[in-house]
Amino acid sequence: MMRLINTYRAYLLISLVFLFQCTSKETQQDQNPFSSLRENYMGKLSGIEKCMDQLIEGNAYRSNLSTARQLFKEVEVVMAFTEASDYKSLNKPNILIVKEEDQTDIKIADPLSFQVLEEEIYAENPDSAVVKNSAEFIKGRMQFLMRNTSFSHYKNYHFLWMIRKGIIRVATTGITGFDSPVLANSLNEAKLVYKSIDEMISLFSANFKDDDLLQQWRSEIQATIKDLDGDFDTFDRFAFIKNHTNKQINLWNLTVEDWQVEFPLTLSLNNHFASLFSAEAFNPVHFSDRRADVGNQAKIVLGRKLFNDQSLSKDGKMSCATCHDKAKAFTDGLKLSKGQLRNSPTLTYAGLQKAFFYDNRAGSLEGQIVSVINSETEFHTSVEEITGKVGSNVEYSTAFDSLYKDGVTDHNIRNAMANYIRSLAPFNSKFDRNIRGEEETLTSLEVQGFNIFMGKGSCATCHFPPVFNGTVPPEFADTEMELIGTPETAANKEVDDDAGRFNIFKTKERKFFFKTPTVRNVSLTAPYMHNGVYESLDQVMDFYNNGGGAGMGFNVPLQTLPFDSLGLTNDEQKAVIAFMETLTDQSD
Amino acid sequence: MKNILKFGLIVAVIIFSTIACNDESDAPEPIDSFSAISGTESYAVPVNTTVTVTVDVRARGLTALTANGDAISFTDELEQTVTYDFAIPQTATVGQEFTVKFVATTADQTDEFDVTVKAGGQTSGVPVFLQLAPEFGDVKITNLLTSQDVLNASPNFVYGSMADGAGLLANTDGSFTLINNIEADFSVARILLDEDLKPFSGEYILNSMATGGTAQCSGSLISMEEHGFGPLYLSGGEWTRTPDTYAPGVYRLDPYGSIANASTPDRITAMGEWITENAVAIGQNAYSDKTVVFIGDDNSDNSVPQGQLGMYVGNKGDLDGGKLYGLKVSSLGVDWEVDMEEGTEYTAEFVELAERDLSPLNTECLDKGVMGFSRLEDIDWRRGSAANEREIYFAVTGREREALAGRGTFAGRIYRVVLNENDPTGTAKITCILDGDKVGGIAEGFHSPDNILVTENYAYIQEDPNGITGKTGFAKLYQYNLNTGELKTVLECDQTAAAAAGFGPDSRTWELTGMIDVSDVTGRDNTFILITQNHGWEPADGSAFTDPTAVSDVANSRKEGSMLFLVEGLGR
Fold it and tell me: ipTM of the predicted structure?
């Protein structure tokens, strides 16, 4: 989620002491490495607890927060895996939390987290009650974790998952300022994460058959830490990901081989891939509805045919392609699609989301299709009618019979279409090819644009790499919504009256919230925003640089975008646009 | 506030006996002896209450009348009524007895009469807003405790928001201990009841600090009587105050644990991080050497139902060293829960699960084809025999979403699982016994059945209406006859009357929950506890029905109240 405050930046100097453990393999083997890992983890949790005690007492706010935050980053890799929800909760931005479970079950709460502490403690007059509240909560969680974290069921594959998630987290959110909005201390914190990864690997050093591989890890981590020395605004994130993240993923793959680890499960990311910026990184099962029916080329072809078939709509004149034209990256180039209230979104990379429609009202592509079928202004038919039409078409029914055990059914029709949409994520843009190291064709302006997008411009704190949409890495379990205050007209006079998510449950705290879409293929998808208000990316950049709707004086106090200017120069804005234009997929 | 409760007349009678009472003459009676006849001698009264003890004295020639040594004024009348105010001290313990000793003295004799006053509980003055169906008109319902009541023995205790799962234990001194989850305060309360089941005092034995703001939903007791070990209390940790994060799972509590440990949580790792509505250990007779615990996963996915039925199997009494399983329906053609038709039996198996953390565990279940239900809620097992104890019933509350059509229940369902006779992990049978979506079906009236209690002959099903299209009315309690399949409505929340009396708006439907059968533990047949979560009923002054020892940040807590009822006269 976007950071709320962008004004105060102080650079903490953290002196890093790298304790490369020189313990010999023999002594390591004496103890289960998970026991050592646990011991180390517990010690740090206890350290955080002590700092919280000091904050509760009102003592030395800044230094205690700083120490606690360092420890939090040192346990990040373990905690985010063993207790993902606690990690997420403790790392929450200072933005009201709203969860709409059902019409009769809507939960709203203020976060209690390190970011709340950071914002309060660095405010002009910290409110001790606010500090105490978060500190007590964090203390309670430390006590919970110390008492209730068990490592006893973990195997080596869990350890390797932990490490790779840690690496990807740094690359995708760690270095972007995502979780250090006030102090912008992200680079130093990333060093702490790498320090912990080094310690973890050394605990498991006995697992390495190939000593050289272990040494490669060691030197790569040292080099990474060295390269993280730098200024937040000018840090070269492109080089970091290309040179370090990619390399570490490669080392990780080699380690899997060296340790002969087998993975009984696949989570959101596949267990083997070379680059995060690739289709092979994503486990389609995680992003699909019906888990058994994924990844079959024949189903994709069938889905494409259905997608383009106008006869499925009531009046026989509309297909999915009517509003999702392949030539326009599956948009329609219109401000608002015909008869619709909102702009047609790109379907490229749509499959790599966990929520659908601009208001996140559907939980899967297959589910989303039902609403389009039923909508009076769209297909205006029913799943039964479509099933009937498809079933009476010999070509379709033959295809379904051969591909699905139960032939033509409503679910199968939607699954085929969804499989086609999931296939529209080729990761073959100029940017992808460059960051994977396949070619070196990016201009310095384009690289600069990526670095601004990922840092000073804060774009990546909502448009997360590698998809540059709102699906939060490295879990890819949630697709976020934001309130940015999109205007009604390009004159930027007032906020658009489309209440967005509010319309679903009438939750006032969710008024004007919309899903964060991908910026991939953005050069083909004008006009922009949910209401198509902007014709050019220059207008879009100008909007964000001015602090969104709130920055332009609209009454949107719950805006999740910084209210103040991003402070990007014209040239910097041009650079971001140049970068975004490298995200256009090659057509096949 | 009612720190001092003026109790009505407690009447005892001291009668100066008339030896010559059959004497037909009106001659003065002799005055040479006293004889006392006792009336009711024992009363239970809340602490910190002044009781006016009233006695009738029949005497002649009184020279002194005292109560506990204090002189009481009297007259020369033959019969007179006198009173004495007695205060039960704040510090009195439940059932503690105090004697009020009346002494009457004449010239030649003295007589004494003792009235015993016990420190007891109190019931709520709030009306019962539960409308019984005519057929159940003989059922007696008492409002024991509501969030606005003050228990004299613990005047700061607040019965908090969204009371939920509960378990009752008999104490050695004749009193009872109710363990009660307070869901929206993310805590667990312990309420002491007197021998008549009237609440005496309350406190919190697990607070929101300990649970990280994780809602404690349903809960269940493990007792020596039913399980062969205990007592222990299992509590389902489900949703959280920071809403999109979880510290879910099965929490374990010592029902008699010190409140000094209220911030110290104990979550059972071996039972997995399900989004736990409840964890229920089945009876010890089901399997001779195993303890089997079922876990209800209230996962509420909007397109793929994935609330799973988890099962933990350990050696008898071992809740930590066992294995974890998920229920998979193995009958062909059953991909989704709604593929199971009401009344048809399907084959099921239990697949072992290696993961314990929330996301990997859920992924493993999906990969292994563990059946996903649309919000699996409360679970219970049938009483009465070893075979009965292997019958598991659970409620799936449902959720209405276009994408869930054809996959998960909308209006809710009740399932029965019959476990393998010899091995809990062996082949089992599953039947949807009640389907709220079935047009014209017997459960057509269902609106989100959420909680379930199973006795020997009945399942009691409690609703938590989620706002399903076409469903009307307030939350209902149903009685399902396990032998005949008959379904009856026992009662419905009467929010029209409640709203008129100032107990919340009728637009926010309450939840019925927490029903437990306390007949065996109390020795009173056909006796139950039942709870309402009175959504929308908040203190008129804008404050909150929140106990600061449960949730320290009262200002940001859930404000609404709950009510606890005693229900007598329902069949088992």
Answer: 0.83
